[in-house]
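Ticket #4471: structure export looks truncated?
Reporter: QA, pipeline team
Priority: medium

Steps to reproduce: submit the single chain below to the structure queue and open the exported record.
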Amino acid sequence: MEKRKLGKTDLEVSVLGFGGWEIGFANTPQAEVASLLNSAIDSELNLIDTAAAYFESEKLIGKAIATRRSEVVLLSKCGALDGFSRYDWSKKGVLETIETSLRNLQTEYLDIAQLHSCSAEILRQADCIEGLIRAQERGYTRYVGYSGDNEHAAYAIGMNFFDTLQTSVSIADQSPVEGNIKLAYQKQLGIIAKRPVANVAWRTEEKPEDSYYHDYWERLRKLQFPFLKKSLEESISMALRFTLSIEGVAAAIVGTTNQEHWEQNAKNIAEGNLSGKEFASVRERWQEIADESWIGKT
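Actual output as written to the record:
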């Protein structure tokens, strides 16, 4: 699998990363998580992203990769907790959350500890920043990152503190391409794409019941990209490869509980970036249809 350098860090990451959201919220059986992750690592995926907010995700991942820690770049997030039901951005809270993450993940250090979508106001208060600094001083994390979107991500980039940015970008979420992603790339931050296939919101003709999918579904109904009329496999491939074709994006995080989905995504990215013409057509359609309200999905 292709690997790319992650910004100014010394990390080389697989272009496809594993996201721990789904396994945590689905409470996936440990044996299935172990099979899924070991298969992925065997196929040279080395980027794993999780968070303290993802219920049992850290524990499931920790047990699954306990003997393979040296083979992966391990990321977690702090600040948001318990399925986003509570938050702790204090210096003490950030530090203690990272300590808990280390125990759950059965590791002595994170490669990147990320703040989990806190606001610019929280960043200005700086308590969470002090927590990250202390975590680095204690060797709990090698690098520090910010996960978030829009004006809050812009503020984080402008702080000149973080090593990485994880942000939403996809065929249905292109505002960061010439915005935060471009700015972060200029500052040599390692850029990781979340929601890189727009939650596959186009898979159904009927508007999804879950409001989580509504923004992307409605946008894609208006964008009407021709490739979305192809098979689901082909359309996902185009969408994922578009995201990985954006200048500066080092990796795309995709969560799944299904090994077949992981294997198909790996095949998709093996085709490489979109051609210049294909990429330009997606961008031109966005620029023609999108309005100012189509900001990044948080």
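Status: closed, not a bug. The export was complete when the record was re-opened. Leaving a note from the reviewer for reference: Residues 173 and 296 are 6 Å apart (CA to CA).
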